[in-house]
Design a protein that fits this description.
Elements lengths: L1 H11 L17 H26 L2 H28 L3 H14 L1 H11 L10
Helix pairs in contact: 2-3, 2-4, 3-4
């Protein structure tokens, strides 16, 4: 039988080297969804911290920003794990990007670099 298979392959002039699809277990995307959800919550809390800051209560706004920094760190780590481990890859990637831009430190750096004229009126 092995010689018949060999003869058939030689007549066809090709060998089928495709792997048979293994029974792949679909991974649960819950990690990526959690990362995206935390990043969205961090962005919302960061927006509220900015509103509190514009209202004049700087101490409370800075306290909120410290919480948001750690929340975005957790969201970014979970999103990275989801993206690398295929636990909701696209949710994780979007969560990492959103967590990066929702981080108050990154937002301050962006404002200083891109639009420093916005900072001139904030201290008044």
């Amino acid at each position: 039988m092995a010689t018949d298979e060999f003869a058939r392959l030689m007549r066809q002039g090709t060998v089928d080297v495709r792997r048979q699809p293994a029974a792949q277990r679909r991974r649960n995307p819950v990690t990526g969804k959690i990362a995206l959800g935390l990043a969205v919550v961090a962005a919302a809390v960061d927006a509220s911290a900015f509103a509190v800051f514009m209202g004049g209560d700087t101490t409370f706004a800075f306290g909120i920003c410290f919480v948001v920094v750690f929340l975005t760190l957790v969201a970014a780590v979970l999103g990275f794990i989801a993206a690398v481990g295929s636990f909701g890859r696209w949710y994780g990637v979007v969560g990492v990007v959103l967590a990066f831009f929702a981080n108050p430190v990154i937002l301050i750096v962006l404002v200083v670099v891109i639009a420093p004229e916005l900072l001139s009126g904030m201290g008044q």
